[in-house]
Each structure stands twice: as C-alpha cells, then as structure tokens.
Write a structure and sequence with these properties.
Blueprint (H helix, E strand, L loop, with lengths): L2 H29 L5 E10 L3 E2 L2 E2 L6 E10 L3 E9 L11 E12 L4 E11 L14 E10 L2 E8 L13 E10 L6 E11 L8 E14 L2 E13 L18 E10 L1
Antiparallel strand pairs: 1-4, 1-14, 2-3, 4-5, 5-6, 6-7, 7-8, 8-9, 9-10, 10-11, 11-12, 12-13, 13-14
C-alpha cells in the first residue's frame, strides 16, 4: 500500500467517524425533550402609566419592564416594574414593583382557569395624608375562553394605603383579538369596575379600546407598538386633580413601543 493510498484511507475513516458522531449527536438533540421552563423579559417606553383607568405617569412618560417564568405544568411567576410620578395618587412614590405568580389550568383547548396573586410594592413609600404605606396584596382568579377573559381581583390588605379598605374588589372583562388577515395586528377592549370597600365614593368603572402591532427589525422579532384610549367615570371629588389641574381620572390616551426577548 502506498503512502498516498494509506493517507486517503485514513482520511476516509476519520471522515466517516466524524459524520457518524455528528449524526448521532443530531439524533440525540432531536430526541431530547423540549425544556419545560420558559423565561421571557420585556421592556418598553410609554407616554403614561395607566392603571385601572387612572394615570400614574401624568402623561410625562414611563419606563416599564419585567421578567416572566412559566413551567409546562401551568405554574408561573414574574416581576414587573414601572416609573410613576411622585405627585400621583400613589402619594410620593416614584417606582412601583409588582411580584406575581399563579397557576393556569387548561380545561380544554379553548377554555382555561387562572388563579394567582399580585403584590404591589413601593420601595420609597411615604406617609402622606394618613396613608402609611401603599403596598397592596391581591388574590385573583380568571376564566379565559378563546379571546375573552373574565377576571376578579380581591384585596387582602388595605387598598393602596386606605385604612379599612381590605376586601376591595376589581372585576374586569377583556377581549384580545388577533386579526388573522393582518399578521401581527391585535385589537383589544376592556371594561372594569372597582368596588371600594367602606368607601363607595371611590368606586368607579373604567373602559378602554386599543390596537397594537407586532413587528420585526432587521430580522429581529419581539417588537410591539400600540395605542389605547381609556376613560374612567371616577368622581373627581374622590380623586382630586393635581395642583396644576391635571385630571388623574377621566379620559387618557396611551401609546408605546416595547420589546419582548
């Protein structure tokens, strides 16, 4: 056997061995089960922070973002944060941090039940007009059928610092409809009612309608831009205007651009 023949034979053996190894690893990767864990993050720039029909951003802009974890079993947890205006009804706070978690149970392909909790936390809360802390804890349950969700949240602490307001409830009905004919376009509508415990003047109903569009930039996906019109019938005597005349309730518009990773 010549040196050239020997070299070619060795090269062929090495090539075959390498290809076999690559094929085995590819088959192992294909056979490996998908991870049951999913983690996503999001960040966005908004012209306001609207919460249940009330402006906390005073239409001066807000930065918001969060991290979400979900498990294939239905368990989920997350953290979300937003900047807020110091002179808003949140009484001197400039940051809100929300901690949440829960469990989603799929009843069938179209219907699911979601039970969870939501903790509102204000790291720089101040004593303000009798409010000692705006930190609030809620339990919630939601039923979702296709594009429709009915949800009720029940406060097990004082509601944003108002003494004796535990038991306050917020019931909402939401519609989120993806327009199949226009890929990435989403329509949304909402109506909610706040039933303030031991303070009927603080109860109100809010409504909003909106549209958003998913898009990509240079092949990078996860972007979303949108707009919402919101209206609340809250009594301005119960929710007085800011010193400069800004109405925290009433009509507001919200626009944003955000990215989910």
């Amino acid at each position: 056997m010549t040196k050239t023949t020997s070299s070619l034979l060795l090269a062929g053996v090495l090539s075959a061995t390498l290809m076999t190894s690559v094929n085995v690893r590819a088959e192992e990767a294909a056979a490996a089960p998908a991870s049951p864990h999913t983690i996503t993050t999001n960040v966005g720039i908004f012209n306001d922070y609207l919460f249940r029909g009330t402006s906390y951003g005073k239409e001066r802009g807000a930065i918001q973002g969060g991290l979400d974890y979900s498990h294939s079993s239905g368990l989920y947890a997350g953290v979300w944060a937003s900047s807020v205006q110091a002179d808003s009804p949140l009484a001197g706070n400039t940051t809100e941090i929300d901690l949440y978690g829960g469990y989603v149970y799929p009843i069938n392909a179209d219907l699911s039940l979601n039970v969870g909790f939501l903790q509102f936390y204000y790291p720089n809360h101040k004593t303000y007009q009798g409010l000692t802390s705006q930190n609030t804890t809620e339990l919630n349950a939601a039923l979702t059928y296709k594009y429709f969700t009915l949800k009720h949240s029940y406060t097990v602490s004082d509601y944003f610092g108002v003494v004796g307001s535990d038991g306050t409830g917020y019931t909402e009905f939401n519609v989120a409809y993806p327009v199949a004919q226009l890929a990435g376009l989403n329509l949304a509508a909402h109506v909610g009612h706040l039933n303030y415990e031991n303070w009927s003047a603080g109860s109100y109903t809010d409504y909003n309608v909106g549209v958003s569009k998913d898009f990509s930039i240079a092949g990078s996906t996860g972007y979303n831009v949108g707009a919402v019109y919101s209206y609340s019938d809250a009594d301005t005597a119960a929710y007085p205007k800011a010193a400069d005349g800004f109405n925290w309730v009433g009509s507001h518009g919200l626009v944003w651009v955000k990215r989910t990773f």
